[in-house]
Design a protein that fits this description.
This protein has eleven helices and eleven strands. The longest helix has 26 residues. By secondary structure, the chain is an alpha/beta fold. It folds into three domains: 87 residues, Winged helix-like DNA-binding domain superfamily/Winged helix DNA-binding domain (Arc Repressor Mutant, subunit A), CATH 1.10.10.10; 103 residues, 3-Layer(aba) Sandwich (D-Maltodextrin-Binding Protein, domain 2); 108 residues, D-Maltodextrin-Binding Protein, domain 2 (3-Layer(aba) Sandwich). It is elongated and about 75 Å long. α1 crosses α3 and α2 crosses α3.
Length: 307
């Protein structure tokens, strides 16, 4: 049984969240469309219910304590989850809602163009998407699943492998005209664009060009030098602008090559370390939208590999 003492009313929690966020009772009252006295009474009643002082009073101002700041962060996340759950219920009363975190370029260039097929096949499911580059905790975020690159070591989550990463080096036609390339050593002397989260990628590419060894099992070349970016979309634009050679996942490289924006350099689709994974928290292992999405992703990947 939940103890009512530790379940403040929504009005109390909204007042706390607004006062801490705005650092002003007056501003909080405006946000909540309440009077200042009402907001002050809600804060006082919350402190009385919890038996803990959350603010210090200085010249009619409420200064949040460290405990109040921590409490407000947790309360804010909880209110966000309640709001999203309510919005999902209204927009999709069948309950088939999945909030998904995806790598930015994968979302726009690989998943996005295909997602209509999933929604058409599963009309009772709606998908909310946000981009994330780094791992996060499913306990503190509001996502049901995520697609990321790396190893299957996401804490507290199950993982389903989508596909291994293969990379292709690409450059603009103008860049290659001014920088002729006949072998990998020519590439090593040029500006090599790098992704912040894949700084070993060029080592794997050089290994695949020269020795055929597995990724990460050969000595480094002289070391990649060039612009460092945090997203593949930026790397693609930099390569198109002639700023260097991009090292792209092959699914991205083939799009740019087919549309004549970039030209492949030497051997294509070189294996590299890491893979793309669908992950979801253990508590949602039987959640129907995730099961359907996992099956659909497997079909898409199989279709790509067969093609």
């Amino acid at each position: 049984m939940r103890q009512r003492r530790f379940l403040p009313s929504q009005s109390q929690l909204l007042a706390l969240e607004a006062v801490v966020r705005r650092r002003s009772v007056t501003a909080a009252a405006e946000d909540l469309h309440l009077t200042q006295s009402t907001v002050s009474r809600l804060i006082q009643s919350l402190e009385a219910q919890l038996g803990r002082e959350l603010f210090t009073r200085q010249r009619k101002k409420l200064i949040p304590t460290d405990a109040a700041l921590s409490y407000q962060r947790d309360v804010s996340r909880a209110l966000d989850m309640i709001q999203r759950a309510s919005m999902s219920l209204v927009t999709n009363p069948g309950g088939g809602v999945m909030s998904l975190a995806v790598l930015p370029t994968l979302a726009t260039r690989w998943l996005g163009p295909r997602l209509g097929g999933f929604l058409a096949a599963h009309p009772g499911i709606s998908v909310n998407i946000a981009t994330r580059i780094e791992k996060f905790s499913f306990e503190t975020e509001i996502f049901d699943a995520a697609i990321y690159f790396g190893e299957p070591n996401w804490l507290g989550a199950h993982a389903f492998k989508l596909f291994d990463e293969r990379v292709t080096a690409c450059a603009s036609a103008a860049f290659l005209e001014h920088n002729p390339i006949t072998d990998a050593r020519d590439v090593a002397a040029l500006q090599l664009l790098q992704l912040e989260t894949r700084q070993s990628g060029w080592d794997d590419w050089f290994a695949g060009q020269t020795t055929g060894q597995e990724p990460g099992k050969t000595a480094r070349f002289s070391g990649a030098t060039g612009m460092l970016v945090d997203q593949f979309s930026m790397m693609i634009q930099a390569a198109i602008s002639g700023l260097g050679i991009a090292l792209l996942p092959d699914y991205l490289a083939q799009i740019e090559i087919a549309e004549n924006r970039l030209v492949p350099v030497l051997k294509q689709a070189v294996p590299t370390s890491g893979a793309y994974w669908l992950v979801w928290p253990e508590a949602k292992d039987s959640y129907a939208p995730i099961i359907a999405f996992k099956q659909w992703l497997a079909e898409e990947v199989n279709r790509d590999q067969a093609g």
